[in-house]
Design goal:
Distance between the termini: 22 Å
Shape: globular
Helix content: 25-40%
Strand content: 15-25%
Structural class: alpha/beta
Number of strands: 12
Largest sheet: 12 strands, mixed
Oligomer: single chain
Bound molecules: S-adenosylmethionine, iron/sulfur cluster
Order of helices and strands: EHEHEHEHHEHHEHEEEEEEHHH
CATH superfamily: Aldolase class I
Radius of gyration: 19 Å
CATH class: Alpha Beta
Strand order of the largest sheet: 7-8-9-6-5-4-3-2-1-10-11-12
CATH architecture: Alpha-Beta Barrel
């Protein structure tokens, strides 16, 4: 599948739930959010069927996300089935890490090949302020366990002024002794995140270089996304930046997003989407579903519209916990 801008689409972010056991201030309302009725959520076999059609069109890697994907019943069965789809080369997961420790061996057995853990702070009080729940200890334990099993691991941190900007150096330091990637993601003003001020890649980089010395670009391949990676002197792992707002982040976009309700989205910030779940439940065959996907791909926007830099159409983005980030 190639879109009108010549970008080959081979990566799917698959959201399996809109529920979460944290309430990160920039992502979810404190009281939680109206959940999708159970019957509106794709069943495991429906998810697998849509992914099979997407793999037939060129999707090669699937990242499972949410909400918090480890809250989804039947997750390991889903992973197992996705990993067996012809054409799917890699199934990975992104999680807040709270439940990860208890799932590690099942996930590995089912075929998960890498995990991203979100970690915005190393301070228990700040964790409570940001996530509005306790749980830092569990997350750090799960990171240690996952690393010990040899599972490829990335840590994702969203730097936000006044919330965690004082500890980015320490968070980056997690990659010093361990061969993991610590990545800093620029905050996108989706939903409630618009009330916060994210730090730019340049600001974070300057803070890290003041502490660790010059970061040198790493040219090897690490992951499937828009991150730029750097090596630091004496570090076993890498530092990554996802310059969602300050870079030409969209030029190499290779992704589609499927929500837990079966809506396929062409872009994080665009209303252009197609309801594959409803199509499937109306009895559409695989050919009709594939044609609906192709039609959406023909309408994929050139760039997200979170920043004036792109100027394009603006759509009040779906909130991140529904689309999966
Ligand atoms: N609950 C899981 C987790 O936290 O990893 C998966 C879903 S979460 C929406 C995926 C990622 O999106 C997390 O790393 C989170 O920090 C990030 N995220 C949420 N809102 C964001 C925003 N407005 N801008 C940038 N990243 C965001
Ligand atoms: Fe939940 Fe992830 Fe959103 Fe935090 S960022 S509220 S963990 S979905």
């Amino acid at each position: 599948m190639t879109d009108p801008y010549g970008r080959a689409l081979d990566y799917l972010r698959l959201s399996v739930t809109d529920m979460c056991n944290l309430r990160c201030v920039y992502c979810m309302p404190e009281e939680g959010a109206a959940q999708l009725p159970r019957e509106a959520m794709l069943r495991v076999e429906e998810c697998v069927r849509l992914c099979r059609v997407l793999a037939g069109l060129g999707i090669r890697r699937v990242k499972i996300t949410g909400g918090e994907p480890l809250l989804r019943n039947g997750l390991c069965a889903l992973v197992r089935a996705l990993a067996l789809i012809p054409g799917v080369e890699q199934v990975t997961l992104t999680t807040n890490g709270i439940l990860l420790g208890g799932f590690l061996s099942q996930l590995r057995d089912a075929g998960i090949e890498a995990v991203n853990v979100s970690l915005d702070t190393l301070n228990p009080a700040a964790f409570r302020r940001i996530a509005r729940r306790d749980g830092l200890e569990q997350v750090l334990q799960a990171i240690g366990q996952a690393y010990a099993t040899g599972l490829p691991l990335k840590i994702n941190c969203v730097p936000i002024r006044g919330l965690n900007d004082g500890e980015l150096v320490h968070i980056a330091g997690l990659a010093k002794e361990r061969d993991i990637a610590v990545r800093f993601i620029e905050l996108m003003p989706a939903g409630r995140a618009a009330a916060f001020q994210g730090l730019s890649e340049a600001e974070v980089r300057a803070a890290l270089e003041a502490e660790y010395g010059a970061l040198s670009p790493f040219r090897g391949r690490l992951g499937n996304g828009p991150a730029e990676y750097y090596a630091a002197e004496g570090f076993a792992g890498k530092i990554g930046f996802i310059g969602a707002m300050s870079r030409g982040f969209c030029e190499r976009c290779n992704r589609l997003r499927l929500t837990s309700a079966g809506v396929l989205k062409a872009c994080l910030s665009s209303g252009r989407s197609v309801d594959l779940g409803t199509l499937l439940r109306r009895g559409a065959d695989d050919g009709e579903i594939a044609e609906a996907v192709r039609e959406l791909v023909r309408r994929k926007p050139r760039a997200h519209s979170f920043s004036a830099r792109y100027g394009a159409e603006y759509h009040r983005a779906d909130e991140m916990f529904r689309v999966g980030g």
